[in-house]
From TrEMBL:
The modification 4-aspartylphosphate is found at D51. Keywords: DNA-binding, Phosphoprotein. This is Response regulator transcription factor. It holds the Pfam family Response_reg. Residues 124-217 form the OmpR/PhoB-type domain. Residues 2-116 form the Response regulatory domain. The keyword Phosphoprotein applies. SMART domains: REC (SM00448), Trans_reg_C (SM00862). Residues 124-217 bind DNA. InterPro entries: CheY-like_superfamily, OmpR/PhoB-type_DNA-bd, Sig_transdc_resp-reg_receiver, WalR-like, WH-like_DNA-bd_sf.
Length: 217
């Protein structure tokens, strides 16, 4: 899942990003509304965690732009105000969910995952395919009943492949969904991660390489 965190409190923004990365999400961070508009014009995000009171361009205007562009991106709006009227106003702008500060990180993570599921065809919370069972919320993977320990990027790649439901996923698509914008697109990080993932999942191999196209399960 690709997430953009937009928050002018830099310590909070970086802490949220770090936490979401530990949950196997690819996360970019910006600290003002103008930078947010620039990012959403370049990258495809599943979810934008958007502070409402932003410098340069207000969070309301960022939200309006996402709606105006007809993007499938979901918006989780954050605000220091807990007033019901503010929450209603934020939702009426086009936000998909609303979370007042201060918030529990576990709740934010759950809301981000729930919104991420809405950007694609509805799938069950626990994904199962080819003997693999993946639970995004618990960060657990099992093969034929045996738990497999995966690093965050390995988990992220496996989740993208599982969500594709047998369709081929290119290396570029995996890079877009499982890594942030600071990753060099010319590295072999995708190939190496897939190789390690195959080894951990064991035999018979469930990840198939489609020459010239990508990977599928």
């Amino acid at each position: 899942m690709r997430v953009l965190v937009v928050e002018d409190e830099q310590l909070l923004a970086d802490a949220v990003a770090t936490g979401l990365r530990r949950e196997a999400m690819a996360v970019d961070v910006v600290y003002d509304g103008a930078a947010a508009l620039e990012r959403i014009g370049v990258n495809d995000y599943d979810v934008v965690v958007l502070d409402r009171d932003l410098p340069l361009v207000h969070g309301d205007d960022v939200c309006r732009k996402i709606v105006e562009l007809g993007m499938p991106t979901r918006v989780l709006m954050l605000t220091a105000s807990g007033d019901v009227s503010d929450r209603v106003e934020g939702l009426e702008l086009g936000a998909d969910d609303y979370l007042p500060k201060p918030f529990a990180f576990t709740e934010l993570t759950a809301r981000v995952r729930a919104l991420g599921r809405r950007t694609t065809v509805a799938l069950p919370p626990v994904l199962e395919r080819s003997g693999i069972k993946l639970d995004p919320n618990r960060r657990e993977v099992f093969r034929d009943g045996k738990e497999i320990q995966l690093a965050p990027k390995e988990f992220a790649v496996l989740e993208v492949l599982m969500r594709s439901e047998g369709a081929v996923v290119s290396a570029e698509q995996l890079l877009e969904k499982a890594w942030d914008e600071n990753t060099d697109p010319f590295t072999n990080v995708v190939r190496v991660t897939v190789m390690t993932l195959r080894r951990k999942l064991g035999e018979p191999a469930v990840i198939v390489t489609v020459p010239g196209s990508g990977y599928r399960i």
